[in-house]
Specification:
Length: 342
């Protein structure tokens, strides 16, 4: 009985040993995987630099083609006093047996003297469902100040600031926003003053170009041709015919001779010409005939003969043509007299 118990106890111990070995091997499997399939290291170009010098920090990982790597994220600084100047990116070199060597490089510097310790960098890698990490060794960087030889270079006090004249360019750069504001205020003020003056004078804000007026004789001759073509008196519209005829002449007289013919009676118009040398006798008689016949038709309801109606239109053409000719002749005479005087 005791022998059987001892054998059973020995079997139990053996089973426990196997279980323990299985657990231990399972626990150390990732470490063995990491050490056998990947290598990771960190180095710097130099362990001693002068303040402000720049050196390269290189993180190197060697992996198989089936593995992927995540380098540690280093953004601005490695330590409080060691700064990242630039991330130079990753270089990949393909080695034998399907291995890859990845070099992650950084440009670093320091502006404070002292000895700085770079704690081990950690890298993550994966192969299939297996994940693991690896660490580099610590690095040391010593930063020196620039040595000063006081025997050759004396230490002097800090120089005072040099006072330079305040230039116009500096003034504009410093106060450009105030200058722009002042210009805008002035322009708005001028615009308001301009609009106020236009409002007080009841003038349009923007004056559009005015089309030049046609010469009085051009307008009159065109209207006479229209009256001739309409043949109003032939259509028993005698009053309208003579009213339009006299209106054309009154507008012409007002534009040509500056006589307020639109507001004056026939006698006043004829008297105005009698008191001046603007018309010759023939033109004066022609004008009298046209205006008198028109007055008889409008006020006395007279019925002129067809020849009289036709004569009024012909005399209107004659009056305009004759006065127009006199104007051109007078202008030529005045120009000739001025040339002779000179």
């Amino acid at each position: 009985m005791m022998k059987k118990r001892r054998e059973m106890f020995g079997q139990i111990k053996l089973i426990k040993k196997y279980i323990l070995l299985i657990v231990i091997s399972f626990f150390f499997l990732p470490e063995s995987f990491s050490q056998n399939t990947i290598s990771f290291s960190a180095k710097i170009d130099s362990t001693k630099i002068i303040i402000g010098d720049q050196i390269k920090l290189t993180l190197t990982a060697k992996i198989s083609g089936k593995q992927s790597v995540i380098f540690p994220p280093i953004l601005d600084t490695i330590t409080d006093k060691v700064e990242i100047v630039e991330n130079l990116g990753i270089d990949t070199v393909y080695a034998e047996n399907g291995y890859q060597i990845l070099h992650q490089k950084y440009l670093i510097t320091s502006f404070d003297s002292g000895i700085y310790v770079f704690r081990p960098f950690k890298i993550f890698f994966q192969e299939g469902n297996n994940k693991d990490s690896a660490f580099s060794k610590e690095l040391y960087l010593q930063v020196f100040t620039v040595p000063i030889d006081t025997t050759k270079q004396a230490i002097c006090d800090i120089k005072q600031q040099i006072e330079t004249p305040f230039t116009l360019e500096e003034f504009i750069k410093r106060f450009y926003h105030l200058i722009i504001f002042a210009v805008v205020v002035i322009l708005l003020g001028l615009l308001g003053w301009y609009l106020y003056r236009k409002y007080k004078k009841k003038e349009p804000i923007i004056k559009l170009p005015v089309k030049p007026k046609e010469a009085p004789h051009i307008v009159a001759l065109r209207d006479l041709e229209r009256i001739k073509a309409e043949k109003l008196w032939q259509k028993n519209m005698v009053k309208e015919y003579h009213s339009q005829l006299t209106e054309v002449l009154r507008v012409y007289i007002e534009g040509r001779f500056s006589i307020n013919a639109m507001e004056q009676t026939t006698d006043e118009i004829l008297q105005a010409f009698s008191n001046s040398a603007l018309l010759d006798q023939r033109s004066h008689e022609v004008l009298r005939q046209i205006l008198t016949i028109a007055d008889f038709v409008k006020f006395a309801k007279a019925e002129p003969l067809p020849d009289e109606n036709d004569l009024s239109l012909k005399n209107a053409f004659y009056f305009i043509d004759n006065t127009l000719m006199k104007v051109s002749l007078n202008i030529e005479k005045e120009e000739n007299n001025d040339m002779n005087k000179n």
